[in-house]
C-alpha cells in the first residue's frame, strides 16, 4: 500500500513539473512577442474604431510596464477619469446646434494656450499639426512622448479635431510644456449626421447598381466611383479633414500668415522619440547641402523592425511614396504652394486617401519630377495604433505596441542625438516608382470633389449639396 501511494505521489509531481515547464515556455513566448527584441518594433496598420470600441480601449488600465517608463510628472496625461454612464461624452451629442456653435467659437477665437509662458509664434517656429479623431488612449501617449522631446517648448502644437469631445478637449488643454492651439473641422459626420458631408437619407447605398441608383433618384446616382460604389462618409471624412487642416494652417490662421518654417504632420496614434526635433533640424541642414531638390522630409517608416545601431544617424533620399513616407511628414509653405497649384488634381482624383491623392499630384507635375523625400532610416516617429481605419486585428491592446516602442527608445537611448547625418540615395524599386493609373476609389461623388475645392477659399460657408440623377 505505501508503495502504491508513493507511485501516485510521484506521478502527481511529474505532472506538476511538466505543467510548470509548459507554463514557463508559454510565458517566455509571450514576453518575446511583447517586445523581447529591443531593436525591433512590429507596427501594424489601422482598423475602424467606433466610439463604443474606443470606450472599451480607454477603459483598460494603462499597464504598470508602460507607466514604469513614463516620468511620474507625466502620469497626469494618462489618468483616465471615470465617466458618467448616463451621459457618455463620446455618445452622439444631443444638441448638434450647440456643438456647431462651440466649434465656430473656438475656430474664430484662434486661441493659443501658454503663449504668455513660451512666447509668440515666430515665422520659423516648428508647427506640429496633429489630426485627432476619437482614439483617446493613443492621444494620451502621443502627448506623453511630445512632453519628453527636447526643445518641444519652442514649438506650436495644433490639434485638429473632427470629433468634438469635452474629455479630449480637457486633455489637450492641460498641456503645459509648450504652446497649444485647437482647431475643429466644421464639416464632420458628427455635426452633420443626417446631411452631406455626413450621411444624407437620400444618399445612394454603397453597393447599389447604377441602374438601381437611377431608379431610386438618390444623390449622386450618375457618379459612382471607379469601382461602381457610392460614397461612404466615414471614409471620405479623413481626406476632407487632412485637406481642411492643411488649408487652415497655411492659409487661414493669423499666427501663421507669414510662417515660412516647417510643419510636421502627425496623427493621434503616433509616438515620437525624444530627439525628433533635433534630428529634424539635422535633416533640414543636410537636405540644404546634399539634396536641395528634396521637398519633403519623413521622420517615420513602416518597416517591421528597426536596426537602430546601424541606422540611428542615417537618412535616405528617394522618390516620395504615399504608403511609405506619409508618417511624420514635414514640409513648408513653398511646398504647400506647389501642392495648391495642383489642387484640382488632389480634389478630383478618385481616391479617398489624402496620401495617395498627393502621390497622384506628385506624379503629374508638368515639367517637374515627383516629390523627393529625405527619410529617417532610424525612425523618430512610430505608429502605435493597433486599431484604426484599415486594420483588421481583433485584439486592440494599445499597451503592447506602446511598451515595445518605449523599450526600443530606452534601449537605444545612447544612439539618439547624433551629431551629423549620413545620407544615401535610393532610386526606389519598380513598385516604388510605378505610375498610378487609377486611385482606390471612394471619391467619385461630385459633392466631395466640390467641397474639397471650396475648402481652399477663406471663410467658406458650407453649402447644401444635392445631386439627383
* Poorly predicted segments: 25-60, 85-93, 465-469
**Number of separate helices:** 17
Q: What series of H and E elements makes up the topology?
A: HHHHHEHEHEHHEEHEHEHEHHHEEHEH
Topology-level CATH name:
Spore Coat Polysaccharide Biosynthesis Protein SpsA, Chain A
Query: Beta fraction of the residues?
Result: 5-15%
The CATH superfamily is identified as Spore Coat Polysaccharide Biosynthesis Protein SpsA, Chain A
Overall average pLDDT: 84
Number of strands: 11
Instruction: Tell me the distance between the termini.
Output: 92 Å
Relative helix content: 25-40%
Domain count, please report it. 1
Largest sheet: 9 strands, mixed
Strand order of the largest sheet: 3-2-1-4-8-6-9-7-11
Describe this structure as you would to a colleague.
By secondary structure, the chain is an alpha/beta fold. The protein has a single domain, classed as Spore Coat Polysaccharide Biosynthesis Protein SpsA, Chain A. The chain contains 17 helices and 11 strands. The strands form 2 sheets. A 9-stranded mixed β-sheet has the order 3-2-1-4-8-6-9-7-11, with helices on both faces. Helix 7 links the parallel strand 2 and strand 3. It is globular and about 80 Å long.
Give structural attributes.
single chain; 469 residues; Spore Coat Polysaccharide Biosynthesis Protein SpsA, Chain A; 9-stranded mixed sheet; two-stranded antiparallel sheet; 17 helices; globular; disordered C terminus
Amino acid at each position: 500500500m505505501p508503495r502504491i501511494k508513493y507511485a501516485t505521489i510521484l506521478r502527481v509531481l511529474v505532472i506538476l513539473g511538466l505543467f510548470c515547464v509548459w507554463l514557463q515556455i508559454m510565458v517566455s513566448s509571450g514576453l518575446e512577442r511583447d517586445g523581447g527584441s529591443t531593436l525591433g518594433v512590429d507596427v501594424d496598420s489601422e482598423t475602424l474604431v467606433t466610439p463604443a470600441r474606443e470606450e472599451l480601449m480607454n477603459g483598460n488600465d494603462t499597464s504598470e510596464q508602460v507607466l514604469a517608463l513614463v516620468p511620474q510628472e507625466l502620469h497626469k496625461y494618462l489618468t483616465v477619469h471615470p465617466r458618467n454612464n448616463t451621459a457618455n461624452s463620446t455618445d452622439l451629442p444631443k444638441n448638434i446646434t450647440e456643438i456647431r456653435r462651440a466649434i465656430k467659437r473656438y475656430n474664430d477665437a484662434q486661441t493659443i494656450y501658454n503663449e504668455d509662458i513660451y512666447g509668440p509664434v515666430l515665422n520659423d517656429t516648428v508647427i506640429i499639426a496633429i489630426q485627432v479623431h476619437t482614439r483617446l488612449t493613443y492621444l494620451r501617449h502621443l502627448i506623453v512622448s511630445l512632453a519628453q522631446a527636447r526643445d518641444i517648448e519652442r514649438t506650436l502644437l495644433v490639434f485638429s479635431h473632427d470629433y468634438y469631445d469635452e474629455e479630449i478637449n480637457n486633455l489637450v488643454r492641460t498641456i503645459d510644456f509648450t504652446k497649444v492651439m485647437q482647431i475643429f473641422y466644421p464639416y464632420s459626420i458628427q455635426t452633420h449626421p443626417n446631411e452631406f458631408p455626413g450621411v444624407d437619407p437620400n444618399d445612394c447605398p454603397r453597393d447599389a447598381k447604377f441602374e438601381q441608383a437611377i431608379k431610386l433618384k438618390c444623390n449622386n446616382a450618375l457618379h459612382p466611383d471607379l469601382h461602381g460604389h457610392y460614397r461612404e462618409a466615414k471614409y471620405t471624412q479623413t481626406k476632407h479633414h487632412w485637406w481642411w487642416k492643411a488649408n487652415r494652417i497655411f492659409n487661414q490662421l493669423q499666427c501663421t500668415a507669414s510662417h515660412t518654417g516647417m510643419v510636421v504632420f502627425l496623427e493621434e496614434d503616433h509616438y515620437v522619440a525624444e530627439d525628433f526635433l533635433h534630428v529634424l533640424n539635422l535633416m533640414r541642414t543636410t537636405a540644404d547641402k546634399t539634396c536641395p531638390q528634396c521637398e519633403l522630409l519623413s521622420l517615420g517608416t513602416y518597416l517591421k523592425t528597426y536596426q537602430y545601431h546601424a541606422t540611428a544617424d542615417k537618412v535616405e533620399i528617394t522618390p516620395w511614396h504615399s504608403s511609405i513616407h506619409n508618417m511624420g511628414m514635414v514640409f513648408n509653405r513653398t511646398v504647400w504652394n506647389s501642392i495648391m497649384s495642383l489642387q484640382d488634381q488632389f480634389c478630383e482624383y478618385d481616391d479617398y486617401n489624402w496620401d495617395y491623392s498627393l502621390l497622384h499630384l506628385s506624379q503629374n507635375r508638368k515639367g517637374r519630377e515627383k516629390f523627393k523625400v529625405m527619410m529617417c532610416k532610424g525612425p523618430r516617429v512610430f505608429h502605435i495604433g493597433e486599431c484604426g481605419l484599415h486594420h483588421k486585428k481583433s485584439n486592440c491592446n494599445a499597451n503592447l505596441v506602446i511598451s515595445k516602442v518605449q523599450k526600443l527608445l530606452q534601449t537605444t537611448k545612447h544612439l539618439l542625438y547624433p551629431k551629423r547625418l549620413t545620407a544615401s540615395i535610393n532610386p526606389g524599386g519598380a513598385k516604388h516608382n510605378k505610375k498610378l493609373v487609377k486611385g482606390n476609389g471612394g471619391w467619385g461623388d461630385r459633392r466631395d470633389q466640390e467641397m474639397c475645392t471650396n475648402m481652399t477659399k477663406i471663410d467658406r460657408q458650407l453649402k447644401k449639396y444635392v445631386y439627383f440623377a
